[in-house]
Amino acid sequence: MSNATDTLYARDITHHLHSYTDARMHEGVGPLAIERGDGVFVYDTEGRRYIEAMSGLWSAALGFSEVRLVEAAMTQMRKLPFYHTFTHKTHQPAVDLAEKLISLAPVPMSKVFFTNSGSEANDTVVKMVRYYNNARGLPLKKKVISRIGAYHGVTIAAASLTGLPNNHRAFDLPMMDIAHAMCPHHYRFGEPGESEEAFSDRLAKGLETLIQREGPDTVAAFIGEPLMAAGGVIVPPRGYWQKIQAVCRKYDILLVADEVVCGFGRTGNMFGSTTFGIEPDIMVLSKQLTSSYQPLAAVLINERIYQEIAGQSSTIGTFGHGFTASGHPVAAAVALENIKLIEERHLVEHAAEMGARLRAGLSQYADHPLIGEIRGVGFIAAVELVADKSEKTRFEPLRRVGSYFNARCQEHGMIVRNIGDSIAFCPPLVTTAEEVDLIINCFSKALEDTQRWLAQGH
């Protein structure tokens, strides 16, 4: 380790509290310090190269060195580096982006509200749902149903929607008026001999039972990612979304599609809602919206919701919600250029093609004794590692083997993410066939290392 890197490590440990990190462990191990990016690769401060098979945080659709996004930001910075969208103010990038997102939406949408992150956007959704039902004269209809294993962010409301224990423990979450339905993972929770369609029937019935228990007059919305990403890359079983939608419509429950990860080509269509036949009332977008070159998120609402919100804001005198940087002109300009590039370069179609190549490469190892399930759709996938293949037995303690596998991938020059003992892949949309093959090669080496490590009795 060079002196410069050693100094950076020491400063980081001294002053920086990291997201999703064991702070005490970090004091001892320190960070992997990334210095620069080039295409789908990033380089650490020692010059080591890593293929970024997670797009950073499911988000760098165009990789880490797209000059046109940098130029879009610089041009807008020179023209108007900041302005807000409060109290009847606007600017060209926000207007253009809102118009573009409405035109791309897979179902008719009416208005766009901008935030800075998916967490803020989902927090906004919870508030909007309350505002909407108060406007309708339904003050009891406030509860939102999410799912066990879901990920929707980290604000108090969004973390409550998230269905992962470590997002709740010691934070006194979830908050009131949030409930969680079953996780739609057929491999893990399907009964012996139960088809995907039958599993979907059982999940829909379970949702209806939950609604009845909570009280239909109190349940306002159901939120779900088209494909659950941070929950383990869980592909919904056949017929799932159609059956869930039917239950929501029956009880006048809004359907919220959290497209933060799935949007802008990740599932092989522009939106995951198209891939899985979802007709949402509300859509939440972020991450690949700007390829994370700028922080930006958007909430799309349909006309029915807008009319109620507009009427309520007229009664009160304002829609009392917003963020200083909502619709930030630089972020909006970058998003417009990002979408333009995705369309120009046919990256949605390219993602579908490269995703098929990735899954085919991973499927070569389907018979390996450590691999329980290989799953994915579009250009997102996961491999679940198991202790006993025939019994689907998990390793104990959970995450130990996945963490080792993750570390071996990094040693071989690839950054992935272990979600428990599932290894997730979410490469940039611009990844080439040769780079997909490199991902498979690194995976193979890490798998061999892990098998050897386990055989040694670890």
Automatic annotation (TrEMBL):
Record key words, sorted: Aminotransferase, Pyridoxal phosphate, Transferase
SUPFAM superfamilies assigned to the protein according to its UniProt record, in alphabetical order: PLP-dependent transferases (SSF53383)
GO molecular function: transaminase activity
Cofactors (names): pyridoxal 5'-phosphate
Superkingdom field: Bacteria
InterPro entries named among the record's database cross-references: Aminotrans_3 (IPR005814), Aminotrans_3_PPA_site (IPR049704), PyrdxlP-dep_Trfase (IPR015424), PyrdxlP-dep_Trfase_major (IPR015421), PyrdxlP-dep_Trfase_small (IPR015422)
Claim: Acyltransferase is one of the keywords in the record: no
Gene3D superfamilies xrefs: Aspartate Aminotransferase, domain 1, Type I PLP-dependent aspartate aminotransferase-like (Major domain)
Pfam families given in the database record: Aminotran_3
Keyword NADP: no
NCBIfam families according to UniProt: PRK06105.1, PRK07480.1
Family: Belongs to the class-III pyridoxal-phosphate-dependent aminotransferase family.
Protein name, entry field: Aspartate aminotransferase family protein
Originating species: Pseudomonas azerbaijanorientalis
